[in-house]
Specification:
Shape: globular
Distance between the termini: 33 Å
Order of helices and strands: EEEEEH
Largest sheet: 5 strands, antiparallel
Helix content: under 10%
Number of strands: 5
């Protein structure tokens, strides 16, 4: 699973399946959409206006209960700042 945030468009995406998938999108409301791939597998969840939806504008704590840990450690990455004119 990968969770990414794009501050330029204030969008959060939670990806459950890696790779490229042809998806069918189901909009729950103006801000939240579900992307379903082949076999109706949930590929990802898109949240627009994420700061408003999530509240304080800060990244909320993420806790996965009932899952065994993946072999790779949890990695947090800040999106690199864009260098204008470079």
């Amino acid at each position: 699973m990968k969770i990414s945030y794009d501050p330029e468009i204030d969008a959060l995406y939670i990806r459950f399946l890696e790779g490229k998938h042809e998806c069918r999108t189901v909009r729950l409301n103006d801000e939240v959409a579900l992307n379903f791939g082949e076999g109706e597998q949930l590929v990802g969840i898109e949240v627009l206006d994420a700061k408003e939806i999530l509240g304080s504008g800060k990244v909320p704590a993420v806790l996965l209960e009932g899952f065994e840990s993946a072999t790779a450690p949890l990695l947090l990455h800040d999106k690199p700042a864009k260098k204008y004119g470079a």
